[in-house]
Amino acid sequence: MMNKETKKNYIEEMKKVFSSNAAVMIAHYQGLNVVQLDALRKELRENGILFKITKNRITKLAVKETPLKDLEKFFSGPTAAAISSDPFMTARILSKFSKSNDKLKIVAGFMDGKVIDQAEVAKIASLPTLNEARANIVGILKAPAQKIIGILLAKSKKIAILAPAEEIKN
Questions:
Q1: What stretches in the chain show pLDDT beneath 70?
Q2: Are 25 and 94 in contact (CB under 8 A)?
Q3: Closest to 37 measured CA to CA, from 72, 17, 45, 5
Q4: Least buried of 34, 92, 122, 158, by fewest C-beta within 10 Å?
């Protein structure tokens, strides 16, 4: 049981954490055991993501005074918040984990100043990472040059092959 001073400190800490990060994903974790939760926390921590099992009533008070106030309704039951500056990585890790552990349910998220539902979180999770996107762009830009070189080389080979045959006819 928290005393009043501890509750005030918790609320202030949560306000700072929620306000200073670009993304918050809310998930229900009922049914996950300690080993599973620790594995999820470890993976999130390795990517700079805070995974906080929340005290719903107090977290609702903290959220009310932040830009995330619309998330208040999602804090019910066994709730955890994944908080980070990278919404894409957060969504990707949570989605991957929820596929292998059906007890983790992504409820909602918050990014770019708006609440997103679980379907939008899944869409975000399927987007390529920045490095993957860069590789795709390089591949797209590189392909036409390779095709042109291939065409030019093919034409020159055909010309080289055809030239002696025409000389024989003449």
A1: 1, 145-146, 148-149, 151-170
A2: yes
A3: 45
A4: 34
